[in-house]
Structures are given as structure tokens and as C-alpha cells.
Amino acid sequence: MQKASFEKVISQSGSSFKAFYFKPPYMPYGGRWHFHPEFEIVYVPTGKGKRFIGTRISQFNDGDLVLLGPNIPHNCFNVGFESENYEEYVIQFKGEDIIEASKYFVEFEGVDRLLTMASAGLSVKGVDKHLVGEEIKQMIGLPPLERLFKLFKVLQLFTKVSCQSLDARQYLSLSVVNIGRIREVYEIIQDRYHASISTREVAQKIGMTESSFCRFFVKSTGKTFKQVLTEIRIQNACNLLVNTDATITTIAFDCGFNSVSLFNRLFKRNIDETPNRYRQKYMDHVQVSLPAKIA
Description:
Protein name: HTH araC/xylS-type domain-containing protein
GO molecular function, one term: DNA-binding transcription factor activity
CATH class of the largest domain: Mainly Beta
Strand order of the largest sheet: 2-9-4-7-10-11
Helix content: 40-55%
Pfam family, one: AraC_binding
Keywords: DNA-binding, Transcription, Transcription regulation
Mean pLDDT: 84
Oligomer: single chain
Order of helices and strands: EEEEEEEEEHHEHHEHHHHHHH
Low-confidence stretches: 284-295
Structural class: alpha+beta
Strand content: 15-25%
InterPro entries: AraC-bd, Homeodomain-like_sf, HTH_AraC, HTH_AraC-typ_CS, RmlC-like_jellyroll, RmlC_Cupin_sf, Tscrpt_reg_AraC-type_HTH
């Protein structure tokens, strides 16, 4: 079974964020399914294809420009690309720094609202994506301070263009203070989501009492452990529905559900579609090849 790997984003030297460009044959991340606590802007200048973001598969044409919030699992955008001459510009930054700045500088208020909206992912339509994209392209190779000013301009442009929600779901909405311990919990879930797993068991593994762990987890993520466990099971089920021909029953049990009826009910509640309908809807889409987890 394939798991979303945690990507540790390392900022460039002398910079508080990361901005980079690549195209084949140099594709540093392949097509892996991953997530990270940083916001991410992706600009694909030309071509058409399909995005694999959260539990959603959506189409783009004439290039693409998206802003993804923290911890939204997604494939690299070369997966599902249906044209030739792929290239990609990516910016990864910590939104909490900008949100904190909005408390002191009114100029950042619009950006603060933008980042809140981006928690489910945003895409820019029409010619606007290329107007913003040209600014993004200019960031590559700039000195750190000039690159930072350009990031502010790009985010300001995002507030002025028409954006459409991608309706993606985060894995975990993390408190920055507790991200290390929550990541440890996530790794336990990823290793055991296909089996029975209790709050008592996880609490013991991270050295907490069960009641303290439950309070800590809700305070850190805004969700109960059971809610997050179910979401991760459903997320993995979506991947299997799209990328394998396993039966619904097999997928249900492989993802940790103890009955098919429970799986169907929770899948419908989380995705707004039945597993069969989800598979049928996307059965003609590009098959996603998900490499093994990268440490």
C-alpha cells in the first residue's frame, strides 16, 4: 500500500522560503504522493492534464496555477500531465510568518484572508494565471531579499484575481508548536491504519496518558484522533480505487474498516460519493504510479 510521505522543506541559503524550477529529465521528486506543513504555489506554464490533490482529481488546460494550503496530500504535477515539454515553478513558504505580520501591517490583511481560503486549495483560471505566473518565473535566481519582495507581490496578485476552490482536505491541521509530536502520531497511523489502532495504544507510544493525549490531539489538530484516522483510511482507499483493480471489499479491509457497510457509509460521508461511483468517475483517468515512501 502506498502512503503519503512527509516532505521536509529546506529553505534556500539566506532565505525564509524555497522557490525553484525544474523540467525533465531532472525531476527531483518523481511522482510521489506527499504532504508538508508549508503553503505551496505551483505554476505550470503550458499544457493540459489532471491534478491529483487530496481526494480530488481535476482537469487543467492551458497550464495551471494553484495555491495549496498546509498538509494537503498531492502528487507532483508531472503525474497526469498529458502534453509535451513539461516544466514547473514551485514556491514553498511558511504561512504563519505572513499571518503574524498581518497583525502589525494592515497591508497584509488581504493576504491573510487568501491563506485562510487556501486551506482547501485554490486554482487561478484564464489569462490571470499567466500574469501571476510571469512574476513567479522572475523569482528564480533573484537574491534572497528581492525574491521575498517578489513573493509578496505574487501573493498580492493572488488576492486580486479570481480563484476557484479545489475542495481538497488536509491530512492534519497542525499547531506549529506541536508539529514534531503530531508528526510522530501521523507516522504511527500511517504504519497501522490498515489494522485496529486505539488512542490508548498511540498514547502509550508517545509517552502520554490516554486522556491527556486526546486533549492534546484535539487542541493541536482541531479534530479527534478517530476523525483523523478515518480521513487517512479514506484517503488511502481513494488511492487504491483509482490505481488498482482491487475489489471494494478488499480495499475496505486493507484500509482498516471492519465491514464493507461501514466503509461505504464513511466514504460517502467524507467524499460525498460512494466508492463505486468514485472509481467509475475516474476509471479513465491517468493511472498514478506512487513510489514507496521516501524518508
